[in-house]
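User: For a teaching handout, I'd like to show students what a predicted protein-ligand complex looks like in token form. I'll give you the sequence and the SMILES for LLZGTKA7. Please answer with just the structure.
Assistant: Understood, here is the input followed by the structure.
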Amino acid sequence: MWRAFTRVRQKLLEQCANGAATKVWPQLTQTHFQLHHNNCVYLHIKAARNIMSPKPKVVFVLGGPGAGKGTQCSKIVERFQFTHLSAGDLLREERARKGSEFGALIDDYIRNGKIVPVEVTCSLLENAINKSGKSRFLIDGFPRNQDNLDGWNKQMSDKVDMQFVLFFDCGEDVCVARCLTRGQGGSGRTDDNEESMKKRIQTYYNESLPIIKYFQNNGLVKTIDASPDADKVFSEVERVFVSSGFQ
Ligand SMILES: Nc1ncnc2c1ncn2[C@@H]1O[C@H](COP(=O)(O)OP(=O)(O)OP(=O)(O)O)[C@@H](O)[C@H]1O
Ligand SMILES: O=c1ccn([C@@H]2O[C@H](COP(=O)(O)O)[C@@H](O)[C@H]2O)c(=O)[nH]1
């Protein structure tokens, strides 16, 4: 956790300890500093930046269908007080909303594993962020293609502080088996069936993986092996969040 430090003056730590520093940086507490054995005081840069940035913090959560994104997001919410926004859930809610002008379109896209135009998804995400009044968000299952990424950059990138992309790496067979088991268990999802799965997997390879690669090329991706059991996966996830300065 305390890998990225910058040296600060001893006086600052003392100010922090006696509360005087809150006048300068009200969000910082003594937990953001560490006294090193050589008597120098270090500030945890990422933790400090995380707490001092006024924009909402966003982590994109990506991976194949059934990789375990939603399952891990629930655990992250519990441990790190993030708000979970699943783009798929928001679209399903909008599809079910009486009078929605997008209901039929969303239904067709979901059944066929296609990606809904970004104007619809991005507006749902922005409304959810604004409505929540919260400051840490997991955006699960978005951006999924170039249209999503372009639309997000146009509408949202200046309004949030994107932290990193959490990528759940999982083989196709495991992904498909998890979704089909979820369907047989009564998920009620119109796309947890073999026909939709084939299309979802194709969309993932053709449209979503190139976006993950783009983020990778920009050094933004934290990859997690999503094939072990959920608790084991979470221990890796926890490590990533802590080393990124979240407490
Ligand atoms: N590590 C795991 N090991 C075994 N089963 C898992 C694991 N993680 C999740 N599952 C199960 O697999 C199914 C899919 O998980 P989850 O809904 O979290 O995936 P997802 O990536 O959000 O899926 P989708 O993209 O389809 O929304 C669920 O039934 C869940 O209980
Ligand atoms: O940004 C998004 C997210 C989802 N969709 C559509 O919804 C389904 C289901 O998504 P899950 O993340 O698996 O819940 C997906 O196959 C797409 O059809 C979307 O269009 N855009």
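For the handout, you might add this sentence: Residues 63, 65-71, 88, 141, 178-179, 182, 229-230, 233 surround adenosine-5'-triphosphate (ligand 1) (CB under 6 Å).
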